[in-house]
Each structure stands twice: as C-alpha cells, then as structure tokens.
Specification:
Elements lengths: L17 H11 L2 E5 L2 E4 L3 E7 L2 H10 L5 E5 L7 E6 L7 E4 L3 E7 L15 E4 L6 E4 L15 E2 L5 E4 L6 E4 L4 E16 L12 E3 L5 E4 L1 E5 L4 E3 L5 E3 L4 E2 L10 E3 L7 E3 L4 E6 H4 L7 E12 L1
Helix pairs in contact: 1-2
InterPro entries: EGF, Pan_app
GO molecular function, one term: Notch binding
Protein name: EGF-like domain-containing protein
Length: about 300
C-alpha cells in the first residue's frame, strides 16, 4: 500500500529528477520513465525506505530484482525521501494523481534497443524470448555482431588518384577469383569538385556549400576504362558518375562498394583503376586535390 504526506510537509519547490533515468540506465541497463504528480496504488510493496538522495531510490530499484517501479516523495522529511519499491508497474496496477509523490515506471530495454549491437550497419533482430539478438549482416560481413570480413589487401603501399587530368590510381589484383566488392581505405589527401567551395574538401565525391554530402563519385574501372564498380543500377547520374551508398558519405574514411549482383571475374596480375568520376568524364574545370588509399578486395 502507499502512504502520502500531509501538505504541510511539502517543500515549496519540488526537486527535478532529470538525472534519474540517465544514471539508472548506466548503472543497470534499465531506465525509468517519470510521471510527475502520480502515485501507483493497490500493489504489493517490495520495500519502503527513507533515503538521503532521490537518485538512491532509482538505484535501489535497479538492484532489486522484484522491483518493477517506484513511488518517490517529491520533498524530503528531515533530510530523507520516502522511497517505495513496488512489484508492479503501470501496466498491471492503478495510477492516480498525487500532490506528494512522483511515480517512476521501470523499463528494461531489449537487446536491439538503444545502441545497435550489430557493427557495420548490420540489422539487429531480437530472439523470440527477447533475451538475445541476431544480426543480419551486409557486405559479406560475418560474426555475431557483423564484425569480421575476410578482406584481402591488394596494395602494400598507398596508391593515389587525382581530381583532373586522368590521374587514376592503378593497382593489381593478387588472386584469381570472383570479386564481390572493393574497399578503398583513405591514407591521406582530399578531393573537391568545386575549388571555390571552402567546405568542399572530402575523399570520395562532392559536398555542398554547407559542407553537407551531395553524392559519391569514386569509381573502379578495368584497364580499358570499363566501369566495374559500382554497378550501373547504383548511379543517380551517369553523366557525373554520382551514386549513394547507405551508411557511407564522401567524408567516410573507408569507401566500401556495394556487393555485386554478379561478382567480377578477375585473374592474378590483372590491373584495375580507381577514378574520381568527374575526372573520368573530363568534367574537371573546378576540381582539385588528390586522395591516397590502400585497396582491399572481397572475394565471393
């Protein structure tokens, strides 16, 4: 059962409990949704105690396995707050208005709520019992959290491509097989499609005058300049060789090309090229810069 104080015991200015949710969540994975001026009634009380700080009530509930919510006095009496730990919450018991208490509904987030436990833009799904998760991985990633990817390093030292004058980066494929994706990992440099844009410096494409991503523009061709990555379906403008990849921007340190529907048949010793797309199309009047990268390949 609950107990209310008389109005004479209420301080003029109630305390603000904005930190309760944050600290309780950090302490035990749970957090509390506050309901100001409410009290939960007609429930079995786990424990009633007077505590020196409001936050102590939240921590006490987190530590108590049977605590589903708590009522806490708005104001202290003789320096202590009445804290009622309850075995039920708003889904199973009655809440009514109160001038003395605030009620806090305990919520334990599922494994897919909050920060995504799946790395590299993997999709998180809870198991049927809600106690665990599974990740659906993209780009050939493996591992419980999509953390592993069997990339093969193609270049032992950086290769560089420029923004104009057909300055592509040339690299050699070390292994025969079917290539599903290529990753370019930036080592140094920048590139821009508008030298008059003070916020245009990036690594893989174009930014607007506010420094916001417009599109990716870096492509992979073979030795006779047939475009191999990305596949045609990804381009939003063939003229500018513009495209977008979810989770990757012109400012990302790594450019991972989308997995190919039909992996590219390559042979050991074959040369491929990395281009700035506008340079490839000879749209280069306002381009500037050079980016140096390490190249990795992912085989099917």
């Amino acid at each position: 059962m609950y107990m209310e104080y008389t109005n004479s015991m209420i301080l003029q200015y109630p305390l603000i409990f904005s930190l309760v949710a944050t600290l309780a969540k950090a302490h035990g994975g749970s957090y509390f949704k506050p309901y100001s001026g409410k009290v939960l009634v007609s429930v079995s009380m786990v424990k009633s105690q007077r505590l020196p700080r409001p936050l102590d009530c939240a921590f006490a509930c987190v530590k108590e396995s049977h605590c589903a919510s708590f009522n806490m006095a708005k104001s202290p009496v003789k320096g202590r707050y009445l804290c009622q730990l309850l075995s039920e919450n708003m889904t199973t018991a009655v809440v009514k208005d109160s001038t003395v208490f605030d009620h806090y509904h305990r919520i334990t987030p599922g494994p897919c709520q909050g920060l995504n436990p799946c790395h590299n833009n993997g999709h998180c799904e809870e198991t049927d019992d809600g106690n665990d998760f599974r990740c659906t991985c993209s780009l050939g990633l493996t591992g419980k959290r999509c953390e592993s990817l069997p990339w093969i390093q193609f270049t032992s030292s950086p290769v560089c491509f420029g923004s104009r004058d057909s300055r592509f980066a040339r690299f050699r494929v070390p292994t025969t097989g079917f290539l599903s994706s290529i990753k370019l990992s930036r080592v140094s440099g920048y590139i821009s499609c508008d030298l008059n844009n003070p916020k245009g410096a990036n690594f893989w494409g174009c930014l607007d005058y506010e420094g916001k991503p417009m599109y990716l523009n870096t492509i992979i061709t073979d030795a006779v300049d047939r475009i191999r990555m990305p596949e045609t379906k990804h381009f939003t403008s063939m003229r500018e060789k513009a495209y977008n990849i979810p989770g990757i921007s012109p400012l990302s340190q790594d450019l991972l090309f989308p997995m190919m529907d039909t992996p590219l048949n390559v042979y050991a010793g074959q040369y491929l090229r990395a281009w700035f797309g506008l340079d490839f199309e000879d749209i280069e009047l306002f381009n500037e810069g050079e980016v140096c990268v390490l190249v990795y390949g992912l085989y099917a």
